[in-house]
Automatic annotation (TrEMBL), chain B:
This is Iron ABC transporter substrate-binding protein. GO terms for cellular component: outer membrane-bounded periplasmic space. It comes from Micromonospora deserti. The keyword Thylakoid does not apply. GO terms for molecular function: metal ion binding. Coiled coil: none annotated.
């Protein structure tokens, strides 16, 4: 847990250094109030939009007779592989004078709705249709059953996804800086640029932590205790698919439209840039080295994150209580901090505590663990919660020791969750830029840093292949996530 | 069950091993935990200047001298923050920065050593630190880029302050978060006082400027016709021409140099400072001297489209020579009073 606390300790140290007067001068301004409101507003708008889009898309691909629904299941998850800075850039180069709150909300929604789509689709797919059948047999109509039963079944998955979206919006810098939506994170980045003002930037970051606490408290309070919708016993059975009839075409068009905006537009924009410019990326060896570095650092980040997430996830699922809740919430805190703050806090940690690790891949992997722990914890806890604890109790009663039970029962049952968490962390790590820039070993380039280097001097054509490769590599774990949600299974009826 | 359990445990272990081995095999030479010793023919440079712009130059340096350069690239602002955070445990030997203000920030923390008199003296006084802690290696002029189809030469303002006139409403591109814009605002403060700077920013804001993230987007939009004029540095024109496979003459965007010592014609530098720990490192000293030598100076003119700071090296072809510019009389050393500038820019509402 110390991992998640690092940035908080760092912020506390640096903010305290600033002194009360400076803090007051930074914070008690109209500007900070406005920024806070706007950040929360953006988070709220994007979260609502992502829930509507994510749940809608999930319902269409899992519960209706939509044509080509497996194709759409993959397309709906793929935007996860598109970094917001690429999407934002694609939008401003396509639509003239695009800037501000609503365009940023649009781009962020298109990039982050898979955070809702994936868990909800998996939940819809895995939910026990018996409850819905009971509801119908008791005289409720289709719509009533949907709102009273189905929506409740997928509520934990929706809430988990929505929380990730909200925190992601708070910490995003790519879309908001390119589209100039004035949020806290943009203000923090600007503060670093303006007069190289570290202190001001860090004081602002501590407000972001406060906002996150608020958000987490809200989410915790709205959670329903002991709501668990695991399927206990019985053969796996799919819910009957809703016949869309004539409505299938508008539904199809809607999903295709979303995919076109989230994936097609960036792809076309990149291709146009490649055709228009004469710059080219470095030799193939350079591109491959960058890709190799991206892969190995993100894999190490994913492995380290899973190692840390496993105990926490199991604790949350198996021994829920105040301790587990507090630990779990702490993991989320660092997730809402901008990468540049995480980067600086780990520089601080590397310089003062772990000097031999400083500017090695390990410290960067640790930064990814700090940033993306909640993604992993959520996946592990979700999988553990769906596997009945009775199995472990039986194993214990048959004389196996706790470690043996962990190895032979708990771990195998949570394996899908571990896989999903690792995939999610991996692909998010591939996209990460600010912390990577600060913490990478000197002289090590990744796809994301190469992309940044090329676009900073306007060499867009040189940047395009890196972007394409980044998205292509990230698509693989996305595919795994879709497959693991059971969305690619053949119909088993 | 037991077979599948064993298999999945094995898979889990294998995945973990794979990840770790990948890291391990990649971490051989480039995870340089070695901060380097003096005179070991190896230096570490933190570069706030873009990799695409300086990497070829650093490769030439290695060819010439046999000294290998480990370079850490990030934005100038991020590296300044990183250096300050690292303090005296930094592994950097030298900091190559985009901007005199960033060099001043690190110098103020007492992290730079004083460069040898012989090195400092090579650079004209206007382009180096008064206390000898950094030197400029290339110069960049502030200009007004304009779209030649939309603005005629006789419409161009004689002073940057005319851009607050209503006739430029909605037509001026600015990048207020950019360090070069800050240096320009500081220059207004230094030359004309706080009030004039404040009034200018308020006027600019009231004129609904086209705000962009950075200079390169402004020049692109001027070239594309989305913005009529923009306040930028001169070399972006060269960069964009390069990307379009043409020369600056082939672009719709042209440069206007403000005349008569107007603040809008400020000349700033990109420069280098040496960290205290490397005060005695001959390799680092060789590096600084190389940057001021004929080869590097010609490189800055030809490849990055900047002005060489050393007298006698020709400027890029598409701009008037540095000596012919009517630059304002401003001491770059005064540009490190950034705090007041930042406060003004924040209050102006041009940034979040």
């Amino acid at each position: 847990m110390a991992v998640a606390l690092l940035p908080l300790v760092y912020l506390a140290v640096r903010t305290a250094e600033a002194g009360a007067d400076r803090i007051a001068a930074e914070l008690w301004t109209e500007r900070v109030g406005l920024l806070a409101l706007r950040s929360l507003g953006l988070a709220a708008v994007v979260t609502v939009a992502c829930v509507l889009l994510g749940v809608g898309a999930a319902f269409l691909v899992t519960r209706t007779d939509l044509p080509a629904r497996r194709v759409f299941a993959v397309l709906a998850a793929l935007p996860l592989a598109v970094p917001t800075y690429i999407a934002g850039f694609a939008w401003v180069s396509t639509v003239d004078r695009l800037a501000g709150f609503w365009p940023a909300a649009l781009v962020l929604t298109l990039c982050s709705y898979p955070y809702v789509f994936l868990p909800v689709a998996a939940a819809l797919r895995g939910a026990d249709p018996a409850q819905e059948e009971v509801s119908r047999s008791l005289g409720r109509g289709g719509w009533q059953t949907f709102t009273a039963v189905t929506l409740r079944q997928i509520r934990p998955a929706t809430a988990a996804g929505a929380l990730l979206v909200a925190l992601y919006v708070l910490s995003d810098f790519g879309a908001v800086s390119i589209l100039r939506a004035d949020t806290f994170t943009r203000a923090i980045f600007v503060a670093f640029d303006l007069g190289f003002d570290r202190t001001g930037a860090l004081v602002l970051s501590s407000v972001l932590v406060a906002l996150t606490v608020l958000l987490l408290a809200g989410e915790t309070a709205s959670r329903r205790r002991g709501a668990r919708y695991a399927r206990l016993g019985g053969a796996r059975r799919n819910a009957p698919r809703l016949r869309l009839g004539a409505a299938r075409w508008p539904a199809l068009a809607a999903l295709a439209g979303v995919a076109a905006l989230a994936l097609g537009l960036p792809a076309v924009s990149l291709a146009r840039r490649l055709a228009a410019g004469v710059s080219r990326p470095g030799a193939l060896a350079e591109v491959l080295t960058a890709a190799g570095n991206s892969l190995s650092i993100s894999l190490a980040g994913a492995a380290l994150t899973m190692l840390l997430a496993l105990p926490l996830g199991l604790l949350t699922a198996r021994a829920p209580g105040p301790l587990a809740t507090v630990l779990d919430r702490l993991a989320y805190l660092a997730h809402a901090l901008p990468g540049v703050v995480i980067g600086l806090s780990l520089i601080f940690f590397g310089i003062t505590v772990a000097y031999p690790l400083y500017q090695t891949r390990w410290l960067l992997a640790l930064a990814y663990a700090t940033l993306f722990l909640p993604l992993a914890v959520g996946a592990v806890a979700g999988a553990a919660a769906q596997s009945p604890p009775a199995l472990e109790e039986v194993a214990r009663s048959l004389g196996r020791g706790p470690l043996a039970v962990l190895r032979t029962v708990t771990l195998p049952l949570t394996l899908p969750g571990i896989g999903a968490g690792a995939a999610l962390v991996f692909l998010t790590g591939m996209k990460e830029l600010p912390a990577t820039l600060l913490l990478r070993p000197t002289g090590t380039d990744t796809l994301a840093t190469e992309l940044w280097t090329a676009t900073a001097v306007g060499a867009y054509a040189a940047a395009a292949p890196y972007a394409a490769l980044l998205v292509a590599i990230s698509a693989l774990p996305t595919w795994l996530l879709v497959a693991r949600g059971g969305l690619l299974d053949k119909e088993d009826r | 069950m037991s077979v599948s359990v064993r298999r999945s445990t094995a898979a889990l272990v294998a995945t973990g091993l794979l990840a770790f081995s990948l890291v391990a095999c990649g971490s051989g030479e480039d995870d340089a935990a070695d901060p380097g010793k003096p005179n070991d023919k190896k230096i570490t440079v933190y570069s706030g200047r873009n990799e695409q712009l300086v990497k070829p130059l650093l490769e030439k340096f290695t060819q010439q001298t046999g000294i290998t350069v480990q370079t850490r690239y990030a934005t100038t602002a991020q590296l300044a923050a990183q250096l300050v955070e690292e303090g005296d445990r930094s592994r950097a030997d030298a900091f190559l920065a985009q901007d005199a203000g960033a060099l001043g920030t690190v110098a103020k923390r007492g992290m730079f050593t004083t460069l040898p008199e012989a090195t400092s003296a090579k650079v004209p006084e206007a382009y180096r630190a008064r206390n000898g802690q950094w030197v400029g290696v290339s110069a960049r002029a502030r200009v007004l880029a304009y779209n030649v189809d939309q603005v005629t030469a006789d419409q161009l303002p004689a002073s940057v302050f005319e851009l607050t006139d209503p006739k430029w409403r909605g037509k001026v591109g600015v990048a207020p978060t950019n360090a070069s814009f800050q240096a320009f605002v500081t220059a207004i403060r230094v030359q004309h006082g706080e009030q004039k700077a404040k009034d200018f920013l308020a006027g600019l804001r009231a004129n609904e400027p086209q705000i962009r993230d950075n200079n390169i987007k402004i020049v692109e939009d001027v070239h594309g016709g989305a913005i009529q004029v923009g306040l930028v540095n001169h070399y972006y024109l060269g960069e964009i021409a390069k990307e379009h496979g043409t020369t600056p003459d082939g672009l719709k965007a042209k440069l206007h140099f403000f005349p008569d010592g107007d603040t809008g014609a400020l000349v700033n530098v990109a420069g280098v400072g040496v960290l205290k720990r490397s005060a005695q490192d001959a390799d680092t000293q060789t590096f600084v001297d190389y940057l001021l030598g004929a080869e590097a100076q010609a490189y800055f003119a030809e490849q990055t489209f900047e002005y060489p700071v050393m007298p006698g090296v020709a400027a890029p072809a598409y701009v008037p020579p540095l000596a012919e510019l009517k630059v304002p009389t401003i001491d770059l050393n005064d540009l490190d009073t950034l705090d007041a500038t930042v406060a003004l820019i924040k209050d102006s509402g041009l940034v979040p």
